[in-house]
Amino acid sequence: MDFQTAVRTCFQKYATIAGRARRSEYWxxxxxxxxxxxxxxxxxxxxxxxxxxxxxxxxxxxxVPSVCVAGRRLHDTGRSAWWLLLIVIPLIxxxxxxxxxxxxxxxGSNEFGPDPLAGEPAPVPR
Length: 126
Fold this sequence. Notes:
The protein is an all-alpha fold. The chain is 56% helix and 0% strand. α1 crosses α2 and α2 packs antiparallel against α3. The radius of gyration is 16 Å and the shape is globular.
């Protein structure tokens, strides 16, 4: 999955935690958010001084898709999205989540859906 496809996919699944996200989808979206914050932070400094207007709006606009793609990434490793709550534990929670985000997803289907790398068709909703 390339950068543009990953960003488009994350915004198309804006508030969808169901399913699985491959590593490339997650990390390309993280790069997009990081780059967007850097660029808009610089524009904010030039235009507004110390006020973070544009980067604040960007952060709010990308908050929900960020949480959802992180939940889908955890689903790919066979974990529930509820594990995202580990982030409230300083440092340790971040490091555990980071370790899980970089791990390879489970091979084949799991309880959260088909393997996104295998090209299996998504299950038909009933």
